[in-house]
Write a structure and sequence with these properties.
Elements (H helix, E strand, L loop, with lengths): L2 E7 L5 H12 L4 E3 L8 E8 L2 H4 L8 E9 L1 E3 L8 E4 L6 H7 L5 E5 L8 E2 L2 E2 H5 L10 E13 L4 E8 L5 H11 L4 E11 L2 E2 L6 H6 L11 H4 L5 E4 L1 H8 L4 E3 L9 E6 L4 E9 L2 E11 L2
């Protein structure tokens, strides 16, 4: 039982709670996840199971997509509906005004993560510092907004948007910045992740459905090879597998197609390694970097 499961997280549960419940349902030794969702948020939460946790650093996630609703006219201390209202104004933008301001946020921008984020500052989460009434010192970072669309005006002061962004982008901060550009305030009242790298909602299963299917988990478990399909895979012989198992590099005569210098080394026995492509004396070698399955 090594791989990934894509869950549709319900509202009101933390990512840690969902991952832990998944571990108990599957009887897994270890679980992890690719990117946290706030408790009030819903949508895609990709869970790594057993050996999948070792593969997390090598999973390519270039884009995430969110649907979210901004309520203009009120600012909360957390940037979302779970916080306390700390400012209120009567300035509510018109539909055309919201539309006209969105192009300003496209491309690479500087964004300061919210003080109630999970960023670590000297070993403490920013939200832990903020809850003590202190102001965590968070530096701005470069993020990319690939697409930003206004989907609908739900009510007079609630607008629904969709954003495709780079990992590490905070939608709550984006919503507050949009409100500021419109000379008002606002906060996020709903947030749903609909794209997580290569995974969409069609790939997802609810945690309750997962419990129903635990006897046939292979129907929903996504293999390491499929998730790591962006990394070239090379099949090694039993002898080469033995060398890799003992931490020894193996000579490789075939052409290596790996821009990052990383590939998968796969043996017939089912053992799987993350290997590093190196050049020594004009000869390509595969050096074992991390055991995923086996040994």
């Amino acid at each position: 039982m090594d791989g990934f499961i894509v869950l549709d997280k319900p509202e009101g549960k933390s990512s840690f709670f969902i991952a832990n419940r998944c571990r108990k349902i599957l009887g897994a030794r270890k679980v992890g996840h690719l990117g946290t969702l706030d408790p009030f948020a819903t949508g895609l939460l990709t869970i790594a199971v057993n050996a999948g946790t070792k593969a997390i650093p090598y999973v390519s996630i270039n884009q995430k997509c969110y649907e979210f609703e901004i309520k203009f006219g009120e600012k909360t201390d957390t940037g979302d509906k779970t916080g306390k209202v700390i400012a209120a104004v009567y300035t509510i933008p018109e539909y055309d005004e919201v539309m006209s301001i969105l192009p300003k946020f496209l491309g690479k921008i500087q964004q300061k993560p919210h003080q109630f984020s999970a960023i670590k500052i000297k070993g403490q989460r920013a939200y832990q510092i903020a809850r003590k009434g202190l102001n965590p010192n968070i530096e701005s970072r470069s993020v990319t907004i690939f697409n930003l669309h206004l989907l609908a005006r739900i009510t007079d002061n609630i607008f629904k948007l969709e954003a495709t962004v780079s990992p590490g982008t905070y939608v709550r901060s984006l919503a507050e910045d949009i409100a500021t550009s419109l000379r008002t305030v606002g906060h996020v009242i709903s947030l749903r992740r609909i794209l997580d790298g290569k995974f969409g909602l069609d790939d997802a299963i609810t945690i309750d459905r997962l419990e129903e299917k635990k006897e046939n988990i292979e129907d929903v478990l996504i293999s390491l090879e499929e998730v790591l399909c962006d990394i070239p895979t090379y099949f090694v012989s039993d002898r080469e597998a033995s060398d890799l198992a003992f931490g020894r590099s193996v000579a490789w005569e075939a052409e290596i197609e790996s821009r990052s210098g990383v590939c998968l080394a796969s043996a017939k026995s089912g053992k799987l390694w993350i290997a590093e492509v190196r050049s020594a004396g004009g000869v390509s070698i595969l050096a074992p970097r991390r055991v995923l399955i086996g040994v």
